[in-house]
Amino acid sequence: MRTYHRAVAATAIAAAMALTASACGGGSSSNDSGGNSSPKTLTYWASNQGTSLENDKQVLEPELKKFEQQTGIKVKLEVVPWSDLLNRILAAATSGQGPDVLNIGNTWSASLQATGALLPFDATTFSKIGGKDRFVSAALAAAGAQGKDPAAVPLYSLAYGLYYNKKMFADAGIAAPPTTWDELVADGKKLTKDGKYGLAVEGGNGSENIHHAFVLAKQHGSDFFDASGKATFDTPENVAAVKQYIDFIGKDKIAAPGNAEYAANQSLADFATGKAGMLMWQAAASSLKSHGMKPEDYGVAPVPFQTAGATGAHAINSMVAGINLAVFKNTKNLDGSLKFVNFMTSAAEQKTLNATYGSLPPVKDAQSDPAFSTPDLKTLAEVLAKSAAPLPQVPNESQFETLVGTAMKELFAQAASGKDVTTDSVKNALTKAQQQMPAS
Amino acid sequence: MIARLRRIGLPYLLLLPALLLELLIHLIPMIVGIVMSFKQLTQFFIRDWGAAPWAGLDNYRVAVDFDAPVGQALLHSFWVTLCFTVLAVGLSWLLGTAAAILMQDAFRGRGFLRAIFLVPYALPVYAAVITWSFMFQRDTGLINHVIHDQLHLTSERSFWLIGDNSFTALVTVSVWRSWPFAFLCLMAGLQNIPRELYEAASMDGAGVWQQIRRITLPSLRPVNQVLVLVLFLWTFNDFNTPYVLFGRSAPEAADLISIHIYQSSFVTWNFGSGSAMSVLLLLFLLVVTAIYLLVTSRRRDAADA
Description:
The complex is a heterodimer.
Chain A: H1 2-18, E1 41-47, H2 53-71, E2 74-80, H3 82-95, E3 101-105, H4 109-115, H5 123-128, H6 137-140, E4 153-158, E5 160-165, H7 166-171, H8 181-191, E6 197-200, H9 206-219, H10 236-246, H11 266-272, E7 276-282, H12 285-290, E8 298-301, E9 318-319, E10 321-327, H13 334-344, H14 347-357, H15 375-386, E11 388-389, H16 397-416, H17 423-435
Parallel strand pairs in A: 1-2, 1-3, 6-7, 9-11
Antiparallel strand pairs in A: 3-10, 4-10, 5-7, 5-8
Chain B: H1 2-37, H2 58-64, H3 69-102, H4 110-122, H5 125-135, H6 142-150, H7 166-190, H8 195-203, H9 208-219, H10 221-237, H11 240-246, H12 257-267, H13 271-304
Helix pairs in contact in B: 1-13, 2-13, 3-7, 3-10, 4-7, 5-11, 7-10, 10-13, 12-13
């Protein structure tokens, strides 16, 4: 009997300890779609765009003051770090308790759209913020699934560029930045000597990995989802694309093996300190500056293509990167929220904020400002306008990022520890990732 | 009659607040978790749980279908966790016991050493594990600096946070974190063993090893029984260590079940499937705990008799 009692008690404790993983969240919300019951305040979740959370507050607070003066609405600001943002949004969607206006990574647009937690921007809503045509269409295409009303509007736009160290290029006798991958590998090999490397990659960061895999796959004429939104990870073209990227550490050896575990922007530091001659990054200017690299020491060129003068569907060399601004459907201040969206996407605010953050304005009126005509931003703007494509806007995008990003991280680990990464092993990894996708 | 009722009722009345809180904090979330595991709770339904269709046993079926990728990955993660737990608990216990016995006799600096030994237990988990993750970095980490640059034990720098070595790294950090707890418990247990037993034993000519085997370890049995169980449950469910060390996607060699479940629910937004895995984990731990307690208690009852 004594034994029995003790076993029951301890078993209860064990049970309590075991189920913590699933015991998150709770409660459900009704489908109330907001209203205007508290018209004087707004809560705004901003993503981390500056060099620190504190820096973001310093940038945004004065602008929010301006908004308060214009409308009498007080905005409560919270800057949420990227590592928490998606979970916080999920929790807000689940509980119905969230901010009024929020920033989302534009690749999450379709996933979050599927939750129904964000206010759709239909024609009426757009008319309240000055119309759809104010926005650059490529940026708007990355704000929700095709054929549906966007779940957000673009706020900051970014594109990938190839950053190169001018002095290292001159020392190695390279006259111009590479325009094809063959040239990039050849240049990389010239630069790789004396403990320095041709290219820096962020191999331990799943999102970075899939951004590059996506572009390379496009160049090979393939995609990770078919038109119906079904996963097609292991097509021969996708395998070739992923292998091409892994080979920078593996076969080509133009990136340092240690890059395979980089996940905290160490590749940016390596480039800024001259440990690597090239880097593919989005709007790196302010970060490079904070690492002590002067603007005249590096150049920015478009990311290479497979063949010189690529055209049509193969001529993609960046994803449409950026941040979108969304309104939470459960907001208690719908009119105020839309006023705030209107304010943040006004030409004046777009100029100020994008110039500070080193990003490009997705609002047409703001683009002509001289702040955006530095050589690097001009290059990135041209990429964004001509050869950028949005990541697949499908509800399962976040699963794709996780599964393929992790698979590539694992492949990088193999390549870096000297194991051969072959077409077969890449195909196996991608097939495995695809099989774990939900069957929707 | 009323007086009797009052006398009987009072203890229960006093227990009521604790009982209500227990319900609120432990039981309700558990029940919600179990209900979730029968639902097809994906991103399409998180806004309104009620609308999520019932999935019956589908989530479970997917989780235990070991021929399909999801089940295979779960099984792999389960074995990794089991190996990790056995190793980490075993080593923690061994270190804790050894240190507790060595610290038993008074000597200069004993208090200082005891305090030092407890530091890993006192440090905040996140700060400690982040420090470890810096030390394990390939190019700039302390570990490689010592074993490669200074001692030349490896022919080239090894990766610790990705690839197969990540398992070693994980076990190291986990042992470092949990052995002070074993040390603390066993040290307390040792204080209860009467000195006379040792004196009598040494009069009878028993050496140190014999004393440890015949007196110390049997006397520590009740402490060990609880200690090993608690360490097992903590280690098996540990989320913080792998999460801080490897981030949201752990390398295959160190894919612990807690991270795996987190990935299957939070990262891929399929909360039903994650809950089903949690419930399976719960059942497994319940069975293990029940068997463990039955076996160890019966043995002790037999020993007591």
